[in-house]
């Protein structure tokens, strides 16, 4: 059960918009981690 | 140092045995006093100390040198005032004495359910945050800057507190059960900050279908917070869910609004191999069969209820904790406090699946007689041996 939101971007969606990045050069887990941290922070403000 | 390492290993084994369904050498002791109570115990001024992370180690050290626990007996603050202040929080505010409090507040209007259901995260960012945090109710540029600062402060403080706790764990040889996510039952999430206690109680009568849809829309987000964001899940890492609203619902409302989506969240956690840690707030005796039916081996900290019935219904499947009334530490004699511990151990410890814990954490040193707390926990340590 994955979330869908206009404001949440998956790594695949990010790569489509930014074709210069690659899984090798910019680690998915590094960039995606910032998306996750902000998501977690926003929810923490409602918990 | 070798003794401390061995102590830590022994303590860790108590919890490993407990969580993996074996009878440990003795009943593990897991409780903590709240951050504010620990500040008071260490002799600091509460209001000043809330802002001052230079005292964090001292607060932990002073509390841990006096209190026995198999895990660190002090809770990390859940409500660091730094980012709440920067954001102009209305939902979490500091009282005149320095306690962080959550007043009744709502940010979602009944007429806005459809928009929320469509994309909860987007609506939270666009509309709901500025209603809860007045420093975000500004231009988009100012909002971005304020949110950026608060995000940095939140993460910096968390890293600092985490590192300090790590030092304390090593100094005292505590076991650790890593927190692996914090979330809520979808109905509780809707009630807490979005619609409020009074608002949700009107909604379940006036717009029940919207409440059900909203809970369903929240569910994947809770699963993300408690499952998908936690790599390398383990039953020894806990995804924590405090349960709030069920005791205030009648049985039909519980079955319609609360249980289906909460159960989905727990099932997803268990299926992923994630530990589940429930704080079963207030009295859930009407719903004990539902809890017993949950999959996995879940730690359930009960606030109130009949320990004999809870033990009988859970049948060793889940881990029971709580039920020891914290208020007794304030009002009873040392002997009466120890007798209560004996009573609970006699009922709950046989066959394993029990860890000692109070029914709630002390939020202030005014809540407890510290000598009674020490006497009870040391009694359990020395006598609750299998």
Report the count of strand segments of chain B. Answer: 7
Give the end-to-end Cα distance of chain A, rounded to a whole number of Å. Answer: 21 Å
- Radius of gyration over C-alpha positions of chain B, nearest whole angstrom: 21 Å
CA-atom Rg of chain A in angstroms: 12 Å
Structural class of chain B: alpha/beta
Measured between the Cα atoms of the first and last residue of chain B, the distance is 27 Å
The largest sheet of chain B is: 5 strands, parallel
Mean pLDDT of chain B: 95
Number of domains of chain A: 1
Structural class of chain A: mainly alpha
Uncertain parts of chain B? none
CATH level-two architecture of the domain at 177-323 in chain B: Alpha-Beta Barrel
How confident is the prediction overall: mean pLDDT of chain A?
86
GO molecular function (chain B): uroporphyrinogen decarboxylase activity
Pfam family, one (chain B): URO-D
Protein name (chain B): Uroporphyrinogen decarboxylase (URO-D)
Domain Uroporphyrinogen decarboxylase (URO-D) (chain B): 168-381
Characterize the structure shown.
The complex is a heterodimer of chains A (47) and B (386). Chain A has helices at residues 11-17, 28-44. By secondary structure, chain A is mainly alpha-helical. Chain A has one domain. Chain A starts with 10 loop residues before the first helix and ends with a helix. With 386 residues, chain B is of the alpha/beta class. Chain B has a domain at 177-323: Alpha-Beta Barrel (TIM Barrel). In chain B, the strands form two sheets. Chain B has a five-stranded parallel sheet with strand order 3-4-5-6-7. The model of chain B has no long low-confidence stretch (mean pLDDT 95). The A-B interface holds A 1-8, 36-47 and B 87, 119-122, 124-125, 128-129, 132-133, 151, 154-155, 182-184, 189, 192-194, 219-221, 223-225, 228-229, 264, 268.
Quick summary:
The complex is a heterodimer of chains A (47) and B (386). Chain A contains two helices and no strands. With 47 residues, chain A is mainly alpha-helical.
